[in-house]
Design brief:
Elements lengths: L8 E3 L3 H12 L8 E3 L10 E3 L9 E4 L6 H8 L8 E4 L6 H7 L5 E6 L9 E6 L5 H11 L3 E5 L3 H12 L1 H18 L4 H22 L3 H8 L5 H10 L3 H25 L2
Parallel strand pairs: 1-2, 1-4, 2-3, 4-5, 5-6, 7-8
Antiparallel strand pairs: 6-7
Bound molecules: NADP nicotinamide-adenine-dinucleotide phosphate.
NADP nicotinamide-adenine-dinucleotide phosphate binds next to helix 1 and helix 2.
Amino acid sequence: MKPSLAGAWFVGCGNMAGAMVEGWHKAGVDLADATAIRPSGSPVPGVRTVTELPAGSPALVILGFKPQKLDEVAPGLAPKIGPETIVISILAGAEAGSLRQRFPDARAVVRAMPNLPVSEGRGVVALYSPDADDALRARMSELFAPLGLAIWTDDEASLAAIGSVAGAGPAYVARFIAALAKAGEARGLSPDGASRIALETVLGTALMAATHNESMGDVARRVASPKGTTEAGLAILDADGALDRLVAETIAAAARRGGELAEAARKP
Ligand SMILES: NC(=O)c1ccc[n+]([C@@H]2O[C@H](COP(=O)([O-])OP(=O)(O)OC[C@H]3O[C@@H](n4cnc5c(N)ncnc54)[C@H](OP(=O)(O)O)[C@@H]3O)[C@@H](O)[C@H]2O)c1
């Protein structure tokens, strides 16, 4: 049986929660009677959209607003969260304890850290819950499976680590593709041509490696023949671990910001 989101509330449904809705739609998940709450009233395709919290108490709530809005939203939402309500939060940084403080009556608090390719069923979603029982965990696994690779973590540090690589990752990959395209333009390609070629190169490389279960070291070795052109290029990326260092610093900066958001959410 397909998982169901019938009657669920999406409190905030912008880029990320909207991508989840799109992924669930494409997978044929039941979104009948689901409601998206957006102050702007901008429609979410396939889901009834309203500007204010509806009456009643939902069985499932997905928190899809920015972490900084937690204390703006929680006072109005908390009275609607009953002992049957499961609260799924995609808020970066806001810890389960901070969420439980705001929604003390919830049946369970589940943190999910998704990334945007969930819209294509090719996302990564880290999951963590301090209080979900086995049955609820199984239900959550079924719900998130159509969105891509769903991984339960034992602690919030692991959830944050997955978020720093996968949640933010599409932005970093996008920058790399753009840099590849810019370099192509500098070699005389048209802007459109260079963008298309860079995108297909990254898409094709990832697809090939995933299909053949090939390590990135092996991929690079298969492209770069000794003393050839690619090897000359790799020498620049690898010099003093240049690329590794840049990416590690990038992810460390994002992780520091995650720590700040967690700290802010601990103090209502
Ligand atoms: N973007 C990502 O790749 C990504 C990845 C992992 C996790 N996340 C998490 O996802 C959450 C949303 O990020 P986003 O990128 O989707 O942001 P976004 O596009 O700005 O969406 C935020 C949503 O919150 C709604 N909102 C604002 N104030 C509200 C209020 N008072 N009550 C109810 N809803 C309210 C907005 O409504 P309107 O539509 O009416 O403006 C919008 O739908 C964040 O907590 C972020 O940490 C994002």
